[in-house]
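Revision sheet: structure tokens.
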Amino acid sequence: MRKKLTTSLVGAGLAFAALFATTGSAQGHGYVDSPAARSTLCGNGTVQDCGQIEWEAWSVEGYKGFPGRGPADGTLCAGGNARFAELDDPRGGNWPATKVRGGQNYAFNWQMVARHATTDFRYYITKDGWNPNKPLTRGDLEPQPFLTVPFGGRMPGWSVSHSGVLPQKSGKHLILGVWTVHDTENAFYSCSDVQF
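Predicted:
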């Protein structure tokens, strides 16, 4: 009887561990899949040698309050999280970029792994003349988001889409999406390379 009970408990423990192995870590939350974020490109294998983010594309979490607070300059794409520093590596400006057109509507899509009460979603874009060969800083971004979607503490769905008009730009740029959690100290950060 004792052997059967021990075997059952071990089996239940392995099933529980397998559930977390297939669904991501308990800290997993959300990622941008359109335009494809750097974390998404690492997670789906489009970009190689990404380190831990390959298994945790949804976990780019850091302190909220951007741009006044939050991750330090040069660590914005990783949300200030050293485990995901590969996201801050500009890779010689060679991150794959989604083709977009300025002045047109674009749908920004987030996929949620865990939902949180939300303050807002904000989208920033790099200034004309920014250097894609250097890690992203606040000074590289336009001072105001080009799209803000207030949520007022509501819970988003498992898939969230925001439509907004892209600024008139040309060439390669970087869009920083910030999902601000309402009831914690954190936000989620997502960098998407785009080509106008």
